[in-house]
Specification:
Length: about 240
């Protein structure tokens, strides 16, 4: 019996990309734990090593929501399903990494600030961003008409993305306990030397590769799900129109 539908094939680049991302993450872990120097006690000491995963996670969240923003605009203009798949997949990854940011941040902040949470501009706007895209995913999960919900979800994603620049520039626009981030070059006031910046940028690249791999896998899964649903629709139609023997 022939297969009821043509199974989409995953992109050939996904496997080597996954291997590269995994190798980068392992190297990042080694550099963060054994090469980068321990921070001062005022910065959390050994616990400050969370920084090498906390900040790259925030970067991936920015990137993921930016891709969702662009893909949502493209979907509204073209109504092509592939853009809708990219938007949803990237939003899911963005929520995942934003959750990691919101978990690791308080763990690092507890010994430094003396509290798990401060309702300052950076933390509050990040929580609002997370809630916005969680709502986006809930909207998609509760609807049955993919084309209609895709248009509505695209509008929600575009509006939610307006919070991203607020999150990023909040430490410059308002007084906040949250640090502004590392300098691109070793600087006296950055608290990071060559080894620390090296570990940070290796982690940044590795997390970016992980995002690209996860996006490719999630879009492929979406295509596979669409193909299966289409096959089920066609099979049900054929059964209804079949003439009894």
């Amino acid at each position: 019996m022939d297969d009821p539908f043509q199974v989409p094939r995953p992109p050939a680049a996904l496997r080597p990309l996954g291997v590269l991302a995994l190798a980068g993450l392992i190297l990042s872990l080694v550099l963060a734990l054994f090469v980068a120097r321990e921070a001062q006690a005022s910065m959390g000491g050994q616990l400050q090593r969370i920084f090498y995963f906390h900040v790259p996670s925030a970067w991936v969240a920015y990137l993921a929501f930016a891709v969702t923003f662009v893909a949502s605009i493209a979907f509204l203009r073209t109504e092509r399903r592939r853009w809708d798949l990219v938007a949803q997949a990237s939003a899911e990854i963005g929520v995942l990494f934003t959750t990691f940011v919101l978990v690791t941040g308080p763990i690092w902040a507890r010994p430094v600030w003396g509290t798990w949470w401060q309702w300052d501009a950076r933390l509050t706007s990040t929580l609002v961003l997370w809630l916005g895209y969680v709502g986006y995913l809930l909207l998609r999960g509760l609807a049955t008409d993919k084309q209609r919900v895709g248009r509505l979800a695209a509008v929600v994603a575009i509006v939610a993305f307006l919070d991203v620049p607020i999150v990023h520039f909040s430490v410059y626009w308002w007084r906040t306990l949250h640090p502004s981030g590392p300098a691109p070059l070793p600087a006296q006031d950055s608290g990071l030397g060559v080894r620390e910046l090296g570990a940070f940028f290796v982690s940044l690249v590795s997390f970016t590769l992980l995002y690209v791999w996860l996006l490719g896998r999630r879009v492929y899964l979406g295509r596979l799900t669409d193909a299966l649903e289409q096959a089920e629709i066609e099979r049900a139609r054929d059964e209804r129109t079949a003439v009894p023997a």
